[in-house]
Amino acid sequence: MAEPTPRRNEPRLRPAPLLFEPTQVAADPEHFFDLESIDDPRALLERATELTQAFRAATDRAVEFQAIAAAQLADPRRFDRLTPADIAEQAEWTEDYAKKMVEFGRDLMRGVEGPGHVDPV
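RE: above sequence
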């Protein structure tokens, strides 16, 4: 289970950097961030754990940006605003989830992060 996303007043953990793999190496389905070349199980566990934490942090951050974008697209002040159904279709979400993401994004933009705040994911 993923750890909760740090809130604005909490420092973010700095997980291992996700390095881009060269195209020819990334095309090899057996290659994954050079993990297959690590023989020591302790080192493999450590590096795989670092990558897991980095991917979780990246996912949490990307979800926050999705929510902010959804809130901006649904802003009633925009002449070209989208409905939750439009946002859902574009993001491949359900309409209910799009509504929750719009609210989450609005909360993030207002800086509202409290004990009653529920992350939509």
